[in-house]
Amino acid sequence: MNKGSKPRWAKAFGIPLHARAINTYRIIGDLVGGYIYVDEDTWNRSHLQRARICIISSNLVSGAMIELDIGDWAMKSL
Fold first, then answer.
1. Which domain does 46 fall in, by range?
2. First CA to last CA across the chain, in angstroms?
3. In this structure, what are the phi and psi dihedrals at residue 9, rounded to the nearest 5 degrees?
4. DSSP secondary structure of 8-46
5. Residue 10 in contact with residue 78, Cβ under 8 Å?
6. What is the model's pLDDT at position 14?
7. Which of 38, 43, 56, 77 is the most exposed place for a label (fewest CB within 10 A)?
8. Higher-confidence residue: 30 or 72?
9. What is the pLDDT of residue 13?
10. Is the pLDDT assigned to residue 65 strictly greater than 60?
11. Which domain of life is it from (predicted)?
């Protein structure tokens, strides 16, 4: 972990049901800082409106929104 980096929670919205898998969460996490893990609700698919992904980030502003277009998917991450 770099100096100034710390774990943060990112929320991802708009992930299609068929794409809700660990590989998708890793891709999203790596795009916004560095994947660590997902919360229990995300892992168990008990909250389908959003995914919570714990990431390492030193330069993300808290509350910032990032829009990701990956192939046919368009997602928003906070």
1. 6-77
2. 21
3. -95, 130
4. EEEEEE---GGG-SHHHHHHHHHHTT-EEEE-HHHHTT-
5. yes
6. 82
7. 43
8. 30
9. 85
10. yes
11. Eukaryota
pLDDT of residue 68: 67
**1 inside domain:** no
Written as one letter, the residue type at 44 is: N
Q: How far from 42 is each of 4, 5, 6, CA to CA, in Å?
A: 27, 24, 21
**Geometric angle at alpha carbon 61, from 35 and 59, rounded to 5°:** 60
pLDDT in tens, 7-50: 988 888 888 888 889 998 998 888 888 999 999 999 999 888 88
Total number of domains in the chain: 1
